[in-house]
Amino acid sequence: MTETRQTPVQETGPRPDGRAEQPEHDEELRYQFPGDKRASVGTSISSRAMVRRLPELIRRSLALAWHADHRSTLLLLLAQAASGVFGALALYATTGTLTALLGPGPVTTHLRSAAPSLTLLTVSAALRAALGIAVTTLSGRVGPRVNRDADMALIEAGCRAELAAYDQPSYNESWEAADRGAATTPDLLTSAQDVIASTVSLVAAAGVLATLHPLLLPFLLLGSVPAGLAAVRTARIHYLATITTNDERAALRIYRWHLIDKQRADQVRSDQVLDFMLAKYRKAEARIVTVTDKAGREAARVSLLAALATGAGAALMWGALLFLVSTGRIGLAAAGSATFALRTAASSVQGMVGNGTRLYRMGLYLDDYFAFLDSAGGHRIARGEIVPGPPKTIEVTSLSYAYPGEQQEPALRGIDLTLRQDEVVALIGQNGSGKSTLLKLLSGLYLPQGDGRITWDGIPIADLDADGLFRQVARVPQEFARWPLPAHENIHLGRHDGDPVQAARDAAALTGFDEVVDRLRSGWRTLLAQGWQGGAELSGGGWQRAAVARAFYRTARQPGLLILDEPTSDLDPRAEHRILHALRALAPGRITLLVTHNLANAKLADRVVVMDQGRIVQTGTWDELAHRDGLFRELLDLQRDRTVPAPRPAP
Ligand SMILES: Nc1ncnc2c1ncn2[C@@H]1O[C@H](COP(=O)(O)OP(=O)(O)OP(=O)(O)O)[C@@H](O)[C@H]1O
């Protein structure tokens, strides 16, 4: 298993040209970093580590609960404590009852002297049952609230990470681990409560045993330690099995998503990809089954050994009890009570260890969760505090940018460029030449690397306050969001003062999105989410008109930088014409950047910048470049050339 999971770098050496060798087999979905840190965490699961960690985990679980719902948490703790006290009282009352019943004298005397203990036993049991119901109800209130808080905190932390984090190999993995941590929070609370309850009950049982005869205390350990050790050991086995199959689980999720997601549903059918993908699905699943089966067998072996040890301990305990009774060291009634207390103690220890290991295991994910919250997976946006106005000049010097990963060539190399207010600049270049990457850097979504610099009116972009900077940017990205929201919300996205529909309508009129909305039965209030009640689906062009209207809406609220990455790729000529005119009309007072593969559209720009393999290779007006030898002219000629080879004459 480990052999097939090595990285390509380990399998193949570097080539003389320094690039990675082609791997001999197809790459499969795997997280990119080889030594999973959780593997070492997994192997460190031990009884000692667990005992050391539990108090802090219990404290953290209670803190989460407290934060989610003060009152219920307080009541929960009180109910739990009271339940523990009544449990202890019930145990003492059982001892008292047995002592009274099994003591010397006539039955009526036994019953009379047992009455107070019996009453206490009954009342304690009844109150304990009532408190049990209260605990369950309160847990049911607090658990979901804890989960809600954890989930919202996680989403917020994720959205505050730098965009570049998504390109980092480790980010997905840390996000998923944190997500699992957030999902475990309600169980965490339940386990913490159970550990507390079992501990109270164990202390009570130990107290009873100590009162009966101190010699009985060691049996408490004999009866429960093997099971406890086995529980820790099996937790470790299962945890390691889970993390060993992390890649496969992630791959399953991704395959599953691709197969069932609406966006690809047509291609799943028309490309007949189902069997092919299901075979990959089964392969990944088979690996998980192999690992979990092996873990299951190992865990069963450990449990069997523990059961044998517990059996031997029980035999020893009975022998010792017989010895104590037969030598008159304890009475028959005390022996009966001891048996009862020992059973209670054993089940408390099992509860403690079982829930303790569960808590410990979940605590590992909780660590991931808190680590993510602290730093957004190590990528929290931390920039300067200068709040910019609309930039008059954006200066780019020696800008290079390389995405992480050994397969990646630098996307940008040594870019120098100056952009001025009121100017429309068209970025032209073949696929993969770096246009979208440059736009993301200009709009502050990525930060320059190394010596590269981007300044807004002389201020390095990293020194600008991130929110303030994004407030100055309106973008139509290449792949724009299709928000499952009503039509007007898809335009203003919650930012409006006054009538939200009217605000959206004005921007939509510039792109023809208003005509699309007019055809929807509920007009601007129509939910743009097909398959949901009252929902509707737009055409590809309809959505693109909405995306451009969204950017124009922001532009009307003053962004100094308008960025459009192929904004008309899905549009009919009429809609395209309308948008290009609007774009020109909006240009004064801001910097406008347009990426387009339709070179005729670049005519509206004041300046055309041509990119090739991450570099700027030409700059000039459209007319200059159209009449100069170079890449632009070559692409223009290709776009104009619509001659197709004549069909071959029939033989
Ligand atoms: N998120 C990413 N992670 C890694 N590599 C990326 C990422 N985005 C782009 N690249 C790589 O960077 C290079 C430039 O891509 P970019 O999207 O900037 O090109 P483009 O000129 O906009 O292309 P197109 O015309 O196809 O949209 C490409 O080699 C691409 O594979």
Automatic annotation (TrEMBL):
Start and end residues of each ABC transporter domain: 394-638
UniProt KW Thylakoid keyword: no
Keyword Nucleotide-binding: yes
Transmembrane spans: 74-94, 304-325
Compartment list: Cell membrane
Taxonomy, superkingdom: Bacteria
Keywords, alphabetical: ATP-binding, Membrane, Nucleotide-binding, Transmembrane, Transmembrane helix
Main location: membrane
SMART domains hit by this protein: AAA
Entry protein name: ABC transporter ATP-binding protein
Organism of derivation: Kitasatospora saccharophila
